[in-house]
Amino acid sequence: MIETDILIIGAGPCGLFTVFEAGLLKLRCHLVDALPVPGGQCAEIYPKKPIYDIPGLPSILAGELIDNLMEQIAPFKPGFTLGERAEQLEQDHEGKYILTTSAGTRIKAPVVTIAGGLGCFEPRKPPLERLEHFEAHGVDYIIRDPEKFRNQSVVLAGGGDSALDWTIFLADIAREVTLVHRRSAFRGAPDSVEKIHALADSGRVQLITNAEVTGLSGNGKLQGVVIARDGQAPIVQAADYFLPLFGLSPKLGPIGDWGLQIDKNAIEVNTQDYSTNIPGIYAIGDINTYPGKLKLILCGFHEATLMVQSAFKRIHPDRKLQFKYTTVNGIEAL
Prior knowledge:
The mean pLDDT is 90. With 334 residues, this protein is of the alpha/beta class. It is built from eight helices and 23 strands.
């Protein structure tokens, strides 16, 4: 059995940063993730997606962010159990938690931190006839390698940050980029919306609002999409790729059976330390919910920092916590 101070379920950016904050307090961490590599969605789903809200980094690719986090936590030598899903959680006679994974690995710790992002997830698919026929033949829900779309004609659909960010990014790669949104207003960051309109005004992106993609055409491979616009006859636009970016549908999986307070597939927490209703179990990042919650990596880093302070007091109730600044002491001195 593996024993550690903090068991982290989820090896995405928030889980990885938890290792750093815990390491500053001399706490050992072990991470469990169903994916075969650290990094969560940033590594597995969109490693080439640019991220703009990390302090001090005007822009960084998601995969590079994970590489940097792995370098940052390397001095603290965390343990990893990858490619195994967290299944069963129980407490022993000492009050410590024992997690059993899908492969039978058992990990014991006094503190459990759930940093599982969206949990188990699948893309939200539009209700289009023959959609499955074109999957992997022109229809993609996730962009792993944007070079795939170089010099191609690409139609994206969606009005959130993912659709906006990828439209902006692909404008420099694809031959033609069209963004279709069913409304005139977008749900994404105002700065991204401004960039989209600027690209549309310059002719680098075709922006079609108050419209929907209602059909697909092609023989074996996608050749076009049918776009229906309010008050106008549908048009068929030639396209090599169609990217419906409507987000991911989250599912908690086995975590949902652990007795935690759940609200709409998210774990309710106390914002004082991001603790759950079960003592010793915390939840940080996109998997938690509270009034005013923002699903940003930046916010998850903040949550991890406060959570570790509380975890230290639980693990060492008889020791006084002395917080030190890395700018003064350096990591090695800590």
